[in-house]
Amino acid sequence: MKNFWIPLLTAAVLWHMPALHAQTSYFEGTLQFSVELEGAEAEALKVNEPNTQMTMHLKGGDYIVQLMGGRYPKTFVFLSDSNYEYTFNPSEAKAYRYSIYADLNKEKTEARAVATGKTAEVAGVVCQEYQMKTADAVFLYYVNDAYRVNVSLFPAKPNTKASFLVPGLEGRIPLKTIIRRTGLVSTNTVTKITPRPLKKEQFMIPTGFEVKNRDYRF
Q: Cα 151 from chain centroid?
């Protein structure tokens, strides 16, 4: 199989707003987010033209995340059967394996998201607010039970920082995330959701690609 991931990563997608009813199965499809930065440190960061859009494709225990709209677009692919994230360099037929999250803070107690009892509407979906605090940040997650992944498909200690794996969220996919740090507030907000079947072949390292250790250029 050759380069089945290319159409998914490059083709334009016709987006539709989600139906406002509960889903009876785990989410499979595509979510598009806007990315915003605010605060005293935001202007300094904007000089480097950070990404302003994010798209996530989900199927089972695998996902693809595309960062777009900035100077350095990048695509990450997480494959649960290998428990690694990858980026691709098509011109050299190489896949670079990310392992930076492996065993980080494994001896420490993980922070946990807790329901606040508040609700908010995000892209027409009524969401419950969850809060998580760490030493240097406060996270707010806005989730709805109709949009979640099956966490049992992910490794027990996955090498990924996907927000739906945050303890306490139980696989709920945040449709909006606010991260507050001193001098900086970052917000990811879903703008369009497309539930749709995706092909397993789109979540594979293309045939003939050489797998290498991480290269920070990709």
A: 14
pLDDT at 107 over 50: no
Contact of 168 with 116, CB cutoff 8 Å? no
Residue 19: inside a domain, yes or no? Answer: no
H, E, C per residue of 104-173:
CCCCCCCCCCEEEEEEEEECCEEEEEEEEECCCCEEEEEECCCCECCHHHCCCCCCCCCHHHCCCCCCEC
Instruction: Answer whether residue 18 is part of any domain.
Output: no
User: In which residue are the tokens 């930076």 written?
Assistant: 100
Does 141 reside within a domain? yes
Q: What's the pLDDT score for residue 16?
A: 34
Residue 73 lies in a domain: yes
Q: Is the pLDDT of residue 17 over 80?
A: no
- Say whether pTM exceeds 0.70: yes
Q: What is the pLDDT of residue 81?
A: 92
Domain count, the chain: 1
Look up residue 173 and give its two tokens.
């996919």
CATH assignment at residue 75: 2.50.20.10
Whole-angstrom Cα distance, residue 80 to residue 64? 12
Q: 169 is in which domain, residue-wise?
A: 5-9+26-101+109-213
